[in-house]
Amino acid sequence: MYAPNNFKQTDIRELIAIMREYPFATLITHSISGIEANHLPVTIVESDGGMAIHAHIAKANKLWQSVEQGADVLLIFNGPNCYVSPNYYPTKKENGRAVPTWNYVVVHVKGNISFIHDEQWVYRMLDTLTKEHEAEQISPWSITDAPVEYIDKMLSAIVGIEISIDEIEGKWKLSQNQPDVNKLGVMQRLIENGQAQQVKISELINDLQ
């Protein structure tokens, strides 16, 4: 990933925070079948031994057959992003020197993939994933809410994924290359526009001040 120094994010806490806030990741793999992208909800596991990503795919997805155990893979976590118009820059009125751009936050994770067929492992992973995403529900759904025989049938149709993390890199492109007056202009206009992604980008720009 191309990331000029002023756009690089090296704070591991910030990187993990984005991964947790935007856990629907894109998994990029390469095999004899070529380059492939799969989109997966993931959970992040931290331990004394390091960090790993847990996820799952349908057994009908031939990824687990085409990609070798231990193969290098890339996961992309796309955070908030939005278009930035030249009209947001006060300096445009002075000299016209402005072009459109896109502000965004993204995290790339490189690691080695393993496919897991142990149904107990898969059950624990799904239970963790479900609890994370049901936490804000008024009445959180649990795997135990469904009939045992139904869950057993579902488990037999799933393959677990574990990615041991080797490298995490982030890019926070948040108008750092603009003078303060333009940063303020971007923040103000994004807030005025009111869309969730734009407001989030405005907040992140402010955090860098």
UniProtKB/TrEMBL annotation:
Domain of life: Bacteria
Signal peptide from the UniProt entry: none
InterPro entries: Split_barrel_FMN-bd, TR_PAI2-type
Name of the molecule in the record: FMN-binding negative transcriptional regulator
